[in-house]
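Schema walk-through. Below, the input block comes first and the output block second. Nothing else is stored per chain. Lengths vary across the set, and this one has 132 residues.
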Amino acid sequence: MEEENNWFVSESNYEYKNSVVDKSFKFAIRIIKFYKILIERENKYYPLFKQLLRSGTSIGANITEAQSAPSKKDFINKLNIGLKEANETKYWIELLKETELINEKEYLSVLNDCTELIKLLTSIIKTSKENL
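--- output ---
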């Protein structure tokens, strides 16, 4: 009976098999939580925070969409959109830091994760283009 229930996925072992999908999903969760903190802290900057939320969560959505792309070109296109969203997210993070809406610790923490996604996406896109 125990073996029959192995197909269930518990929260403790819920991870995507694909590293970039997993990292982008976890990054989106961080961005949502960060957004909630920022809104509570300084509600009047809602439009800026909303931009960070939109672009930061869009990265993973595009990466996930790329996983079921019907062709290699479409796969690369979806990843390029994810990369554009990651670069936009980096812009908003840097803007929030320079305008002192986030502190150095928050900045470095979120920026490091975003930069890691940019590097991963750049590498995957480059390799995919070479293998066309």
